[in-house]
Amino acid sequence: MAGSHRLHTPQEALEALSADLEPLPCEWVRLETAGDRVLAQTLYARHDTPPFDNSAMDGYALRAADSGRVLGVSQRIMAGQSGVALEEGTCARIFTGAPLPEGADSVIMQEEVEARDEGVLIPAGLEVGNSVRPKGREIRAGEALVSRGTRLNSAALGFLAGQGFDRVPVYRKPRVALLFTGDELKLPGEPLEPGQIYNGNRFMLMDLLVRFGAELALVEQVPDTLEAMTRALERASHQVDVIVTTGGVSVGDADYVRRALESLGELDLWRLSIRPGKPLALGHIDQCRFVGLAGNPVSSFVGAWLFLRPLLGGMQGCDEMKALPEVTAQADFETETAGRDHYMRVTLQWDGDGYRAHAFEDQDSSILRSCVTANALAVIKAHSKIALGERVRCLLLVS
């Protein structure tokens, strides 16, 4: 496949990335550090939630059969307290979340009663279970709590904490080396000589990789020589799970990355039939996977979303990361493609009837500004002509 001169499809690239892909080993982490990590085992409820019948509001707990009468208030129960058995012909002043006392089967909210000298008048017709959250309403002990492969969001963390979990099993984060080529690249804050530019890809890709769940083990600028790149790839391959490079995978005389990779490992796929991002290279050095992105900033941006996200998601056992979510939108632009699929940077807005896709005017692969406000990629197939108002397929940029 790698030796072919034809351009490959994005689907072929995804298949190459997923070949023999298994989740990384499990590790246990404290709950406060588990946000956005992927659960490696299904966890089960340790107890009923709620663990007891409790009041859904501030009011009075009573027997529903006693409604329509004036009842004396025999006790006061706050959240975190437990009352005593309800005396016959009485009610209990109760607050939200407090357990119902034995004998009570309903709660009336405080705004619905009338205060009397001898107690409170309860309106007639109260039903059993009114304003009561029954024991086990949310989940019963032994039921599946959160399933393996779930990416833990804030609600999941709260749900687990409510069951007493302080540590959880998650897949290990993929360790990633991010290598940059290009002697013309400088770091922000350094002076620029004629012909030099600042390395915007460095900070863009560092942020995206972390958002995709990676641990950045190595970030390095590599001199533009075959020897330097070969040494850098060999060293990184012993330290990380994935090597990501930008630049050096095209066909120019100074594009050393592909040659360095082939001297150490295997090139599995090279060049895609997409715009931007044609010079993608995929391969491996022993067990370390390699993804070579194009040096143009938009190509790196699009390639990261299309290929790094599903690769890292698969290594973390997260099915939801294996493909970007899709919607269709009405195009507020016109375009025509040649021989490659075009991934246009667009901003989606909901107008009440559906999404509208607003395209940045300059879609050149060097114009990173086109990605700043983009929240989707409009996929325009090769040899297509899109008219104003036509429906287009859009991939949502959701990390």
Automatic annotation (TrEMBL):
Which biological processes are named by the entry's GO terms? Mo-molybdopterin cofactor biosynthetic process
Taking the record's annotation, the residue ranges forming a coiled coil are none
Cofactor(s) required for function per UniProt: Mg(2+)
Task: Please name the Gene3D superfamilies in this protein's record.
Answer: MoaB/Mog-like domain, MoeA, C-terminal, domain IV, Molybdopterin biosynthesis moea protein, domain 2, Molybdopterin biosynthesis moea protein, domain 3
Task: Look at the named UniProt entry and state the broad enzyme category this protein falls under.
Answer: transferase
**Keyword annotations of the record:** Magnesium, Metal-binding, Molybdenum, Molybdenum cofactor biosynthesis, Transferase
Show the catalytic activity.
adenylyl-molybdopterin + molybdate = Mo-molybdopterin + AMP + H(+)
Reported EC number(s) for this entry are 2.10.1.1
Q: Does the keyword Transport apply?
A: no
GO MF annotations in UniProt: metal ion binding; molybdopterin molybdotransferase activity
The pathway to which it is assigned is:
Cofactor biosynthesis; molybdopterin biosynthesis
What's one Pfam family the UniProt record gives for this protein? MoeA_N
What are the record's GO terms for cellular component?
cytosol
Function according to Swiss-Prot or TrEMBL = Catalyzes the insertion of molybdate into adenylated molybdopterin with the concomitant release of AMP.
Family, per the entry?
Belongs to the MoeA family.
Question: What is the protein name given in its UniProt record?
Answer: Molybdopterin molybdenumtransferase
Species name: Kushneria marisflavi
